Amino acid sequence: VLGNLCNSIKNIAVVGSRNATNYGISITKRLCEELAALDFTIVSGMAVGIDTAAHTGALIGKGKTIAVLGSGLERVYPHKNLELFHKIAEKGAVISEFPLLEEPEPHNFPIRNRIISGISLGTVIVEATQKSGSLITARLAAEQGREVFAVPGNINSFKSIGTHSLIKQGAKLVENTQDILEELYPLITDDSSNNKIKHEDKINKPLSLPSEELLVFEAIGHYPVHIDELARKISMEPGKLSGILLKLELHGIVNQAPGKFFSIEIVTNQVHGSKVQGSRLGSDEN
User: Fold this and answer.
1) 175: β partners
2) pLDDT (tens digit per residue) in 62-83
3) Which residues make Cβ contacts (< 8 Å) with residue 84, sequence separation at least 6?
4) pLDDT in tens, 120-176
5) Nearest-angstrom CA–CA distance, 244 and 211
6) Tens of pLDDT along 185-216?
7) 234 vs 5, more confident
């Protein structure tokens, strides 16, 4: 191990094609930047393409990332990622189960994939051909009882065959960070007893909200939602939405996490102007 594993339990693996498209790289960087800003540790294999984009996105998000190598720690592969190798070691960890001088032999990579999936709560696949090695990681994740996610792609691209196959087999389709959070947050949240006590102190507090603030309030679900996703959900101009969110935050109703993610802060018995009663604020009941 080079660096610090930090005993993180909020690990999410992100892997995919080495010959990634601009679409795949862009999506991967955005997802990993947003997840890192929410204190998730991004795990990948430091290969070119999607792996490199995953580590880079985590670093852009000022978060931690772990690279699992298919070679020894003194045989950095690919060599073009040497600078990235050192950045990962500084902000997270580079790990390998192989001897220090082990060369990056082809048979090593399927072996190391079980570590990538095994130390993570779930694995996200971005772009994969029918015979992609990342599908091995997805299979291992399923066998290890981990969540499997897949980002859809162009139906005419052979690089979408693997991910679309995973979705057909039951992998969670990922269009945004929210799709990942909905599956993983129940696995990492604290035992509800402490939260229940904390929220019961406020359970009888009534709220009276103007219609637009109520619209925003009711659109926020159980888990952190990005401001851009929220704006799309309620068809509201981002600048106007930011102002409303600020008001709700100042009233202690909404909590903002790093990366412009928002979640409901309190529980109440009644929201004036809303039909929701005796429920957690902002819960989706559709």
Assistant:
1) none
2) 999 999 999 999 999 999 999 9
3) 46, 52, 55, 56
4) 999 999 999 999 999 999 999 999 999 999 999 999 999 999 999 999 999 999 999
5) 11
6) 877 764 333 443 343 333 233 356 788 888 89
7) 234
pLDDT at 273 over 70: no
- Token code pair at residue 142: 């399923």
> Amino acid identity, residue 72?
G
Q: Delineate the domains of the chain, giving CATH numbers in brackets.
A: 2-187 (3.40.50.450), 192-280 (1.10.10.10)
CA atoms within 13 A on the CB side of 265: 15
Task: Name the DSSP letter for residue 153.
Answer: -
Q: Could you write out the DSSP letters of every residue in 112-140?
A: HHHHHHHTSSEEEEES--TT-THHHHHHH
Which two three-digit tokens encode residue 53?
């984009």
> Cβ distance 67 to 76 under 8 Å?
no
In terms of Cβ atoms closer than 10 Å to its own Cβ (0-12, 13-18, 19+), residue 101 is: exposed
Q: Copy the structure tokens of residue 14.
A: 């992100």
Task: Determine phi and psi for 249, rounding to 5 degrees.
Answer: -70, -40
* Encoded tokens for 89: 């070691």
